Amino acid sequence: MGDDVVDQVRRRLRHAPGAARRAETVLLGWRANRPAQNAWFVPGGRIRKDERVSQALARLLQTELGLAPADHSPPQFLGAFEHLYADNALDAPGFGTHYVVLAYTLQLQPDAPLQADAQHAGLRWWDLPTLLADLSVHENTRAYFDSAVGNTRLQCG
């Protein structure tokens, strides 16, 4: 944990749609670690101490998905969200996890190479209706796309 702060960056990724594609697709990873273990979730991670958000996004896209800046559009801010979990990354008893999430969206180049890291057992593209209906997609991920799923978006002011 050392350099890491509680703020966590999650990005919603959209595949750049071709002319024949109308439905938006979203990239999710099958979580191999806690929290949100054994569920489909958006890739993401923590912002380190003294690290700018733009640096964290570049680092996370590279380490979690193998993406370089040329592989995607500039990230666009989606909103701030709050995630609460009963468990924690250490699998230690007695406390849960509370993340304040800065969510971003971006489009990938059609030929962008994707490679899952150790915390994702696999990657999969989802259309929104399937993502919202499938209970193997974590509730916090579904909430990014449908406010009726969970009230996790932070309202400031």
UniProtKB/TrEMBL annotation:
Gene3D superfamilies given in the database record: Nucleoside Triphosphate Pyrophosphohydrolase
Co-factor(s): Mg(2+)
GO molecular function terms noted in the UniProt entry: hydrolase activity
Location of the Nudix hydrolase domain: 9-149
Matching PROSITE patterns: NUDIX
InterPro entries registered for this protein in UniProt: NUDIX_hydrolase-like_dom_sf, NUDIX_hydrolase_dom
Alphabetic keyword roster: Hydrolase, Magnesium
A Pfam family matched in the record: NUDIX
Protein name as catalogued: NUDIX domain-containing protein
